Amino acid sequence: MVTTFFSSPFLVQVLLPFVILFLVIYAILQKTKILSGDNKTLNVVISLALSIIAVSFAYPTDIITRIIPLFAVTIVIVLVLMIIFAFAEGKDKFELNNGIKYAIWGIAGFAILAMVIWASGIWTYLTNKTHSNLLWNIIFFIIIIAVIIVASIGGSSGGDKKK
After folding, report:
1. Separation between Cα atoms, residue 140 and residue 146, nearest integer Å
2. Are 96 and 85 in contact (CB under 8 A)?
3. In this structure, are residues 30 and 36 in contact, taking their beta carbons and an 8 Å threshold?
4. How far apart are CA 113 and CA 74, in angstroms?
């Protein structure tokens, strides 16, 4: 089998994870302004350092290389859905209502969590026969917490208010 540059181990296991980590960390630091307001140099240095540290170890790089294809497909699906929503809306400016925004963020958060759990091997560990009871206990606990949060948020809105 012929190895091209795009299928070489250097590109797949070192360069792509480094670039993706650098861009994601830099974007998060720029958007949140955690470290300093407009100091781009500090954000670049910290992003560079964290990316080099992560790529120098095999385990984080393996997780990133497993997530990249899933992430790419997810981004394509989201963009196609946004284009369909924009055409269906028919207005000059495209905006989603708050319910759809929250639903998309919830689904995206769940998908990212599921991708990380799968890529890191936690799912394989939990679904092992010796740990299956642990898995169902964790799932049941998460469902109970989610129901409590939804009930508390739903109860605090007030329902029908008489004027």
Report:
1. 10
2. yes
3. no
4. 13
DSSP 7: G
* Nearest Cα residue to 22 out of 5, 39, 45, 56: 45
Residue 84, SS3?
A: helix
- Cβ atoms of 61 and 19 within 8 Å: the answer is no
- pLDDT score of 156: 54
Q: Predicted confidence band at 163 (pLDDT cuts at 50, 70, 90)?
A: very low
**Three-state SS for 140?**
helix
Residue 38 CA to residue 34 CA, distance in Å, equals: 10
Structure tokens at 67: 């997530």
Q: Which distant-in-sequence residues (6+ apart) come within 8 Å of 35 by Cβ?
A: 29, 42, 43, 46
- Picking from 50, 11, 8, the residue whose alpha carbon sits closest to that of residue 27 is 50
Question: How far, in Å, CA of 107 to CA of 142, rounded?
Answer: 16
Domain range list for the chain: 1-56
The one-letter code for the residue type at 128 is N
Contact 16, 7 (CB under 8 A): no
* pTM score of the predicted model: 0.58
What's the pLDDT tens digit per position in 40-60?
888 899 999 999 998 888 888
